[in-house]
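A favour, since you know our structure tokens better than I do. Go ahead and set the record down below.
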Amino acid sequence: MSLDTHRSPTSRERLTPHEAMQRLEHERASRLTQLRAIDEAGAGEEQVVSAQKDTIRRVLAEVEAALSRVRDGSYGVCRTCAKPIPVERLEILPYTPFCVPCQRNAA
């Protein structure tokens, strides 16, 4: 199912703030665990390890920004077009600030 297709009338429009916080807390914990695992693994290809850490830190920053949006009430609203981000997209990528069409246009 495409994330930018019409939803059935029974699907929810938005995650509750509690659901959003749970998903985002899980994402943050997962990324922190990944960083610890990389650090504990120690020796390895330094460029690869550095790139992995940079990617994880970038996602952590996105998660923190999403947590701020939950707190200020703007979570689940596309930062470009101001339309609601489909709940299905937020279930897959809970920290995204964009709906699928706006994300595609930004790429």
In short: Confidence is low (pLDDT under 50) at residues 1-10. The CA atoms of residues 2 and 44 lie 39 Å apart. The radius of gyration is 16 Å.
